[in-house]
Design a protein that fits this description.
By secondary structure, the protein is an alpha/beta fold. It contains twelve helices and nine strands.
Length: 281
């Protein structure tokens, strides 16, 4: 602890509770054939356990002082079982991995989470601030429900594993944390080329639509769609006033609600209807 204390910044908190560290390994259900990526390896408390329980670990750390500690700590372990990567996890391209197991730096939780969704992997066990974890799993109509909730429910199966008390960390942070499991949903590989192309375009439009309307989450959806139209695109912005009346019959019930009061399924149906109107020849 003495060496590590010299290098701790005010925003760094290390998981030191061995019981929770071991439960993370249990939750991850690592196989000896699996490759793991760890983002924000810190001083290696979790890294060492990951190396001992998997085929290979890619551990990323951008703090130079901590990286030296990490190198020293792992030096006695088989060198073919790990690769330590010095750099910013937001900027790096990740090597191919089967699972992600990380105590993600809380200041970049959202950015890293969205970046992970771009990769093909089996599952992840991630430590988040408790508040962020609640947003991942927010229920419709609550303050926690939003773009983050919908994006993750669309692309993954997400499970709350356990609340982690602040006392499990050193230095002790001001907030509690939580462990969450994410399992990416698999695409339908049987789709034809045209169907796959349409699916990809609908998804791209849906996420732009979500980003836009949730900037106005407390406005009625009709107003949110108009006020945020510039975020979706030029054509949408120029045509939204003409499109809205065409949606009343099928979507009048939800257009009168606020974005956070509407289920992800209904928002997707609405987004698809708008996309089809915009692309109709």
């Amino acid at each position: 602890m003495t060496n590590r204390r010299r290098y701790i910044r005010s925003d760094q908190h290390f998981l030191v509770d061995n019981r929770i560290l071991n439960r993370i390994i249990d939750y991850a259900d690592l196989k000896p054939t699996e490759t793991v990526i760890e983002i924000g390896a810190g001083s290696g408390n979790l890294t060492e356990l990951l190396i001992k329980n998997s085929k290979k670990v890619y551990a990323i750390e951008k703090d130079r002082s901590l990286f030296r500690i990490l190198e020293d700590r792992c030096s006695s372990l088989p060198s073919d079982r790990y690769e330590l990567i010095y750099g910013d996890a937001l900027l790096l391209d990740y090597p191919k991995f089967d699972k992600v197991v990380s105590n993600i730096p809380y200041s970049i939780s959202s950015e890293i989470s969205f970046k992970l969704l771009k990769y093909d992997f089996l599952s992840g066990v991630l430590m988040y601030q408790l508040e962020f974890a609640r947003r991942l799993l927010g229920r419709v109509g609550t303050k926690d429900y939003g773009r983050l909730t919908i994006t993750f429910s669309y692309r993954t199966d997400t499970e709350f594993l356990e609340k982690v008390p602040k006392s499990a960390f050193y230095p002790v942070p001001e907030v509690d944390s939580a462990l969450v499991r994410i399992i990416p949903k698999k695409h339908d590989l049987k789709l034809s080329y045209d169907a796959k192309e349409r699916s990809d375009k609908l998804e791209e439009f849906f996420f732009k639509f979500l980003t836009a309307v949730f900037t106005q989450r407390r406005k009625k959806l009709r107003n949110a769609m108009k006020n945020s139209a510039h975020i979706v695109g030029k054509q949408y912005k120029s045509e939204i006033d003409a499109i809205l009346p065409l949606l009343d019959d099928k979507f009048g019930d939800i257009i009168a609600l606020r974005p956070y009061e509407i289920s992800s399924d209904r928002l997707y149906e609405l987004s698809t209807a708008i996309y089809d109107i915009l692309t109709k020849e």
